[in-house]
Structures are given as C-alpha cells and as structure tokens.
Amino acid sequence: MSQTSIIPEFVSRKSFIELDGRKRAQSLFDEGTWKELVDPFERRESPWLPMQGIAPQFDDGCIVIKGRIGGMPAVAIALEGAFQGGSIGEISGAKMAAALDLATKDSVAGKRTAAILLLETGGVRLQEANLGLAAVAEVISSVLALRPHAPVITLIAGTVGCFGGMSLAAGVSSYVVMTREARLGLNGPEVIEQESGIDEFDSSDRALIWAIHGGEQRVGMGLADALVEDDVEKIKATIRKYVQADLLPEYRSQQVELYRDRIAALDTSAQIDPISLRREWNNTTTGGLR
Known about the structure:
It contains twelve helices and seven strands. It is an alpha/beta fold. Strands 1-2-3-4-5-6-7 form a seven-stranded mixed sheet, sandwiched between helices. β2 and β3 form a beta hairpin. Keywords: Lyase, Transferase.
C-alpha cells in the first residue's frame, strides 16, 4: 500500500512553511498578476551590517510584492526569517513602511489595496538598535493609516514566530492568521528565561511555549482570527477571504478597557490553565473577539 493511499491529503499538500519568504509572498497572488518592488537587483542593503563584520543581503531580508489577490489589488510584505532572524532594520523597515504608505495612497484615491504582512521575525535588529526601533514605529504608524481604508492582514506561518516590536504591528492589524506551528508574543521564551529566570519560564519546555505563544492558543483566546493548516492552497484561500472582507467597525487594539478588565479578573494565585483561558476569553457573549 502506498503512502498516498494512507494519508493522501497530508502527502499531497504543498507546505507553505517550507517556502522562503519570497516564494511565500508570491504564492498568495493570482497567477501572472504580481511583480516585485525594490527587488535584490536594486541592492538596497543595510549600510550598518558590514561595519560590524556581518554580510548584508541585497533585499535586506524584506520582500515587497504587488499584484492581485482574488481579483483585488494587494501588496504583500515578507520578512525573511532565514536572514538575521527576520529582524527589522533601517532598510527593511523603510521598505515595509513605504509599501504600506503606497497602499494607503492608492486606497484613498479609490483603488482599495489590501496589505499582507508575512512576519517571521524576532523584532528589532540589534545591530541597528535605535534605527530598528524607529522603523517599528513607522511601520505601526503606516498600518494605522491604511486599515481605515483597506484590510491589513498579518500572516504568521513558520516556527521563527513573531516577537518583539513587530508583534505590536501584528496587534494593530485588521486580521491575524496563524498556523499551528507559528508563535506570537511580545517577548520570546528565551528572552523571558534570560530576564526572569528558568523558574518563571523554561524555554526548553516546548509544551509550555505552544500553550502560551502557539497559533492554536492565540486563536483560541481570540487574539488571532484564523488557524490554518500548513498548506499553500488553504492559506491562500484564507488570505483571499480577508482581502475581500468588509472593513471592521472596531479593531482589537481599540478595545483597551475590555482587555484591562480581563487581565484584572485573572486569578494569579495559581497557575492559569491555557484551556480554561481560551474558554473564558473567547466568549462571544462578552464581545471582544476582534
């Protein structure tokens, strides 16, 4: 008996996670409609990395692709997790903010252009320090300018996850889509252990990590919108749905009082059970699912 007859769907699917950042972005668009902006041949690389003995990359780990998704204009901006951990620096941040601003300009002019952020990133590039922090602020500002005019969709697919300042960019997006393998959090497990000790967080405990930062938990708590399988066609269909969706009347990042009340109500005298937290926070009767 062949493997395909035992688990046909699994073996026949095309993995999204196994693609690099450029191919992930390309795979989301309608066939024959996309083109890359500021591609590697323009050699927009970081001037700061060579000074510190680090080889730069011609696209600075940021890929910008414009085209159509489901027949509608869209731009995808991917951070390549294989280059410097997907960190964001001066050049990659400028590319991301400029692409979002261009989408805003088109949308205001009547050509609604959705943005998809493919985030595989540990956050700010430490070698570029304050420039990276400024880039995160500019990206967040650009997301906030675009989302009243067109959807901003964050897609977190791979095991690099989305941490640090870029998790804030995900937080202000219109929608967040995650795979079960993806992770999302302000501080990564290693950082928490380093700063607060292994008694606070054991970064080698994989079950603990996924119970807190994992895609299933984030969606279960209502902090992300869709959990998708690692499958190119299923991810493409989910992104297409959100590109075509109506604009939201209220965003998760605007529900400050709701989340303050939820955090205040937590009983911290005992270890909080992730499943109970999902049940409590993802309660449609209390609102705040978006």
